[in-house]
Amino acid sequence: MTISRIDQRLGSRPNWWHDVEVTFEDQHDATPAPQQERKRSDRTLLIVSLFIAIGLVFVTRGVLVSVTGDERANLPSTIESVLPVPDAEQALAQSDVFVDLAPGLTGVLVIDGTEIETVNLSEVQTEGVEPGEQVAVPVVTVFEPGNFTLTYAPSSDGPIDRFESGTHRVDVIFWPIEDGRERARVYTWFFNVV
């Protein structure tokens, strides 16, 4: 498009900008371009997208229905947590055995058929201990009455110095403190050491 003439005379007409003559020199360029054909979907891209979508559906479903940790252990309501995690595949040889009982309960640990003596932490002798000095706790299962926990840490001075490779069984025998061991219940779990 070219502007061939612009008449800009001062004082001629008040609408002087209307005196513009426009000519189209290349009229054949004014025809519309042919529409481009719509591209077909790339079949490979479609198949890969389908597999990714199916994979995402399976992962989402797996996360929603998975059961892990304490839920997988199927713990009774009187036990809040245990360590090593039941059916753990890679526990360490020096792993502590830990049981968190519901308030008002106490108990003992039986590890691989050996009942480990239990000491109430509140009964450990603290007489003659200077402030800041550590209290010597015997290498046995320690019961903390404030938290209602049982803990055994393997040591060379104790009945179990370390866990050998393989499967190990832990039985926690627990009962209400007021009722005594006569009303005891047992929960058993296994873990594997690498």
Description:
The chain has 194 residues and is α+β, with helices and mostly antiparallel strands. The protein has a domain at 74-123 and 138-193: Immunoglobulin-like (Sandwich), CATH 2.60.40.1220. The protein has helices spanning 43-65, 69-73, and strands at 2-6, 20-23, 79-83, 88-91, 97-101, 105-111, 114-116, 118-120, 141-144, 149-152, 166-176, 185-193. Strand 11 and strand 12 form a beta hairpin. The longest helix has 23 residues, at 43-65. Residues 1-9 have low confidence and may be disordered.
Keywords:
single chain; 194 residues; alpha+beta; Immunoglobulin-like; 5-stranded mixed sheet; 14% helix; elongated; disordered N terminus
A few lines on this structure:
The chain is of the alpha+beta class. The protein is built from 2 helices and 12 strands.
